[in-house]
Amino acid sequence: MTRIDRRYFILGGAAAAGSLVLSSSATAAPLNPFRLGVASGDPAPTSVVLWTRLAVRPLNADGHGGMPRKPIAVQWQVATTARFSRIVASGTVNARWADAHSVHVIARGLQPGAVYYYRFRAFGQISPVGRTRTAPAAGTFGPDLRIAVASCANYENGYYTAYRRIAEENPGLVLFLGDYIYEESGSPGRVRSHAGGETVTLADYRRRYAQYRTDPDLRAAHAAAPWLVVPDDHEVENNYAKLVRANSRPALTAAQWRARRAAAYRAYYENMPLRSASFYRRVGWGRLATFHMLDTRQFRDDQPCGDYWKVCAAADAPNRTITGAAQEKWLLDGLARHYGTWDVLGQQVFFARYADEAGAANMDAWDGYRGARDRLQRGWLQRGVRNPLVLTGDVHAALANDLKLDYRDPGSATIGTELICTSVSSNGDGTALREVPWPGVNPHIRHYSERRGYTMVTIGQERIRADFRVLPRVSRPGAPVSTNASFVVEAGRPGLHRV
Ligand SMILES: [Fe+2]
Fold it and tell me: Residue 352's closest CA among 408, 284, 310, 275?
């Protein structure tokens, strides 16, 4: 891009591109089409996904954000400095009405292991600047990688202070493990309200994502680092499994339910910095780590024994699956490659056994799919996987678990680690409770906290470190963040050590 082109990008070139002024608007001032912010994701050594979605009226009920029914040209730039003094990639892409004016750009030809800045331009307006990075070159470790791990961000339940604090940490990567939006509306005790009722149609889901992105703390977290995202149930409907609903309201015919599910996933892709609408995928981070991002929702068998916490013999059936056969084979094949020092499984629901004294456990978690858990754990042992690390969301509490070959035998070998982030906002303020529930039957659970927040995980060649970051409240904005537990795991020696 020449100097003149850059000036044109910055100054807007309104005469050539035209300003977006709604005909019904009383003011002649151009409207900002970048109210949903920018995002990046799924970095590779020489490319990264850049995202934005144009909207001038984000809460419009048709989900189109007040945009005209036509394609809009969007320019994009990637630079090595935040002032865009050296632009290394640029182009123009059409934001289409059919995609709710979302754009996914794959910026290519980048240097491995580098930090970049990016921005968009449309209607003579410049977007906020996002910061992103590429993965290290194949065969290299790169520096230690600091990742923020988060999940469960019901907008009604609390403010997004956790997202603000994540942005302030300047992480290398953000992992978001499900329940980015919630489909329901009107939570009891809510501190703010979803626009519209329960999301069912494509328009509903599009508006829900747009409303979430009107939050400046969430936009800041997206602009701070590339994200690796996977959806869970609330991006569609609570506790659904494959094609089976857990709810009877709203009443839907089978065809309406399938249409709702498809609309939900379409809106998810439109609003996330993903390379494709296939959510399970691998993201390599040189020799340091391999991220195996899982989808434990779309392909799973139905929860046994009617779901929820149950004593359930059917959960032991050896042939049950939570990933589907194709994803399970893909995962085990990927674990056999031994490429990254740490094999990180980014996934949705509680992986280790977690039971009460009567033996009841959550049928929506891997405890409802014990055969699948056993096949995966034995699978990684058989393949000589040295450093498996399972990262999990879902339960609105933070936990650190030693993974065991046999959870009923405390003397059984520790074969990996699970770190569970708490919720960003779901369930509201949380509590000071720190005692592990039913410690007699859950001795492998080493940490428990019901505070809101996120987990910072620093991945190094020799060890990982986990810092559980907590907030005293989310019912009011601006709470300070602190650490209430830290652990390390040494490479080649499974097991959590409190520090
Ligand atoms: Fe959740």
Answer: 408
Cα(28) to centroid(ligand 1), Å: 43
Tell me the pLDDT band of 28, cut-offs 50, 70 and 90: low
Ligand 1 centroid to Cα of residue 433, in Å, is 19
For residue 219, report the distance from its CA to the centre of ligand 1, in Å. 20
pLDDT in tens, 38-91: 999 999 999 999 999 999 999 999 999 999 999 999 999 999 999 999 999 999
The per-residue b/e assignment along 147-180, b for 16 or more CB within 10 angstroms, e otherwise, is bbbbbbbbbbbbbbbbbbbbbebebbbbbbbbbb
**Secondary element (H or E) of residue 270:** helix 254-271
Ligand 1 centre from 245 Cα, in Å? 17
Whether the CB-CB separation of 383 and 394 falls below 8 Å is answered with no
Whole-number Å distance, alpha carbon 72 to ligand 1 midpoint, is 35
Phi, psi of 268 (to 5 degrees): -60, -50
- Residue 344's DSSP bridge partners are 291, 389
Separation CA 482–CA 41 (nearest Å): 27
pTM of the model: 0.95
